[in-house]
Description:
By secondary structure, this protein is an alpha/beta fold. It has helices at about 40-55, 65-75, 80-90, 115-125, 135-140, 165-180, 180-185, 195-210, 220-235, 250-255, 275-280, 305-315, 375-385, 390-400, 405-430, 455-465, 500-510, and strands spanning about 95, 100-105, 215-220, 240-245, 260-270, 270, 285-290, 320-325, 350-355, 365-370, 435-440, 445-450, 470, 485-490. It is about 40% helix and about 10% strand. An eight-stranded mixed β-sheet has the order 3-10-9-8-7-4-5-6, sandwiched between helices. It has a four-stranded antiparallel β-sheet with strand order 11-12-14-13. Strands 1-2 form a two-stranded antiparallel sheet.
Amino acid sequence: MVxxxxxxxGHPYNHYIKAMKKVASGFSPLVALDRRSGKPLHRQIYExxxxxxxxxxxRAAQKVPSSRALALELKVSRIPVLTAYSQLLAEGYFESxxxxxxxxxxSLPDQPISLGQRDVGLRKVxxxxxxxxxxxxxxxxxxxxxxxxRWGAFIVGQLALxxxxxxxxxxxxxxxxxxxxxxxxxxxxxxxxxxxxxxxxQYLRTARAVNCEASQIMVVSGSQQALELTARVLLDxxxxxLFEEPGYRLARNxxxxxxCCLVPVPVDAEGMDVVTGIKKSPRARAAFVTPSxxxxxxxxxxASRRLELLEWARRSTSWIIEDDYDNEYRYEAxxxxxxxxxxxxxxxxxxxxxxxxxxxxxxxGYVVIPPDLIERFLSVRNTMDVCPPHxxxxxxxxxxxxxxxxxxxxxxxxxxxxxxxxxxxxxxNELGTSVELLGADAGVHIVTTLPKGLCDRxxxxxxxRQDLWLWPLSSCYFGKRARQGLILGFGSTTxxxxxxxVRRLRDVIEGR
Length: 512
Ligand SMILES: Cc1ncc(COP(=O)(O)O)c(C=O)c1O
């Protein structure tokens, strides 16, 4: 189910929030009984609940433990608990619902009734500047920019999720939930399930010409964790990293958080300009690239640039981090082979994800690790989140093995190709030669330049007011000289939406 207009205000992730509020149930609040005090036990229990409600530690409609459970927990007989509960019921702090148990009254305000001294204390603390890590302070704030994480035409990074094979997926999830064994609940291999890694390796060798065995594949929580792990294993604070300009903001943040110095390297029609990069940073320890489909400009790195980059890594004993995020979607030609497949020196760390082919909340991706680094990746991974969760690995393994992934990719490739054709045609019809389209051969977004003299941020802000959630191209630049343009996502923009959305975009542009 996609969100409606009503979801578009406030927090950027509002469209995930259900209309019905759910309240956690049945946990016991802290009741510190003092058996030596002269105060009766039922009074102490009563006061503990009153205080927890007044402070907001337990809230409206929250379930309270049964009298039997609380008595067991407090190691007292049920009598004082029952006495306290009947008083709380009588005074309206609690209400009982037949068959469901006892709850804090739902008519209490959502916010704590009074924070008293604690509130004053908190306000004092928050008004002072407090020392936090320099690295975290380097990251841009997590602000709800008008064009991020909304739902509607041109949203970047979203997919045709209404075409997701929900029934097949649900039946595989059910199959594995029904067959859950004790083994599935234990900590497991930090690399991920061996058989799942086998199916990923087979896919990567076949479809992406990646040079790999299952033993080199680590299952991670999306490309984002892959990047984080890679930076921790390979780089130290102060290390210089060649970074595509414009480039992928979330990757940039990972290297910034690791304390690395980012060196923006221009991207032209052949991808990252390697020679310029080497000149700007002769000591760079790594290069981050999206060679199959550069984000966001959409160019494919030429063969000569690939060889230059590999040669640089060999000579300078540096690393190449290849993010191959959406290569399954190419419309004009066959998918291009991975850069990793050309590497004879094991200098490329290859990263992929199921966020584009399946769905982003799945949080499953993978890293192909050079054999001699596996042990280091394992140690770091084990320190970060120990191991990947079990359930979606076994579900995905069946999804791949039974051919559903290949089918889904074929089906969505046709669908996205139709959306892309419509979008390109509509932009050409409505905006003519005043703009240039970039990167239309692949992926689920295109870039359009703007008529001379227009800045992209005000255009994106005005477009957002028309329910058009495109990104300003300049937001992907790190340096000061940003090219102005718009990134138009078409993954979740339906054929019915495209003509009207492009007309509204034309009006926004012409109105500036
Ligand atoms: C360049 C790039 N890499 C990777 C991803 C996917 O990231 P993840 O696997 O963390 O969802 C995206 C998503 O939009 C992307 O644009």
